Amino acid sequence: MEKKSYVKPTIVRHSIGVMNKYGRPPATVPMSRLAGFDVKELVAQYGSPLYVLSVNQLRQQYQNLFRAFSTRYPGTRVAYSYKTNYLKAICSILHSEGAWAEVVSGFEYDIARDLDMPGDKIIFNGPYKTREELTRAFTEGAMVNLDNYDEIQVCEGLADEMGKKLPVGVRVNMDLNNPPWHKFGFNIEAGHAYEAVKRIQTGGKLDVTGLHIHVGTYVDDVNIYAAAARGLVSFYTYIKEQLGVRLKYWDMGGGYASHNTLNWAWQSAEYTCPTVDQYAEVICPILLNGPFGSGDVPKLFIEPGRALVDEPISMITTVVAQKRLPGGKRGVIVDAGMNVLSSVQWYNYNFQTVQDSGVTVEDTILYGGLCMNIDVLRQSAALPPVRRGEHLVIPHVGAYNISQSWQFIYLRPAVIAVDDGKIHVIKSRETRDYVQKMEQVPDEFQTYRTVNRK
Amino acid sequence: MSEIFSSELTMSKNGFLFDHGSGLTYTLNATGQFIFHLLESGKKSTHILEKLITEFDVTEDTARKDLDDFYRQLKELGLIEQ
Ligand SMILES: Cc1ncc(COP(=O)(O)O)c(C=O)c1O
After folding, report:
1. Which residue segments constitute the domains of chain A, with CATH numbers given?
2. Which of A249, A285, A334, B17 is the most buried (most CB within 10 A)?
3. What's the pTM?
């Protein structure tokens, strides 16, 4: 007798939220393969949790973004925001596609130089740059965007030392979002940006050749970029007239959204995330209307991070347990914690089953595997029944989770890259030796060992 | 283990369950419905386990764990008493 196919039995109480007037929650289509490989086999070989990069998808993300902007603003350069994910393999792939590097520390600057990015293809941002780092950046011809007066003073000192006028960019901010991003650079509305440029130009040691703005991160309202671009154009017009500034570049920063749903959003990112063409379409025409002729068009830089690397990386996790909470809700515990998925503080990630578990879903809270109460990966997700040992795939985890991960309780996972059917390990799973390599235990602290031995 | 339904329940052909006592509604998946019918007709858990492994493509170990989980769900929802 042919046996009937089997799914884990389940019963789900109907409640508000699981199904509503917008229909069912996103269907739980089993995702048995990832970048062409069987998920179970990947885990068998490389362990769980596991980050999986699709190299093809990463290249496509870059090409699409570059096309969207460069066709609308000739000469646009994409400078990849290293902090989003500075695994060397990932930076290398993006550099081979033509990306420059946007770095915010000496550490990141060194990575870019190690990967043979010449200084003049590096943009150096960030509120904290040491004198040594600035010296190296100017010597190697990097674009340095200044954030505050202390930096202006340090750079004037360097200009004296180097015996030449140094080109600098000025980072500005505007009242664009709520709450406004005032931490970085000089505010335009308050007049601080004008004061700073005036101060730099009259000092005579530095020359303002760039303007930089970064409006925020995951900014899914293209109007904010439109307002920022208009603000840059009018500010440039003013400092050109008043102070004779001639820009070589302007830099619209990053912040372009990826297909992940923010956890306070009531609609899924499928509906709310603008395309790169929509961003480019609002930004480029406004900037091209700036105060310049055909001979002195400033170069346009954009500094995308999450829009490039979020979507090409998925994480495979394994269910380790499930339980019922006192209120009746189901809890599922997986082997990855928020220490390797820090973006759970912003995103409602999708958790996709790997095996066919039927269509009956239940409202579930997903816990990470850390012995820590706040380790919740998602407060509420519609999941079919799952068992210990089964896998859940979380798509779109490439931005920030790896560079912001912290070692805690467990060893951090490996990262593999799938390229044309070939698998490369681009970061090995951590070992305890590696984690404890920098530690020393003085003998005086170990007297218990001799005591115990007696 | 003896399962007794705690209230009056009606299930439709596609697994929609109505509790006349509380007015609450539920959905059971195919395997859930199968087990539910057996429970309804008063079958013991050992019999249900046997039925599952003879009729479905599942190992005894998995079926046992899943049943255990399913009964806990039913109990949690107040649909069976032990
Ligand atoms: C100066 C600068 N540029 C670019 C980025 C990249 O941002 P995103 O990943 O949102 O594109 C950041 C990140 O916050 C940034 O601070």
Report:
1. 26-53+313-435 (2.40.37.10), 55-309 (3.20.20.10)
2. A334
3. 0.90
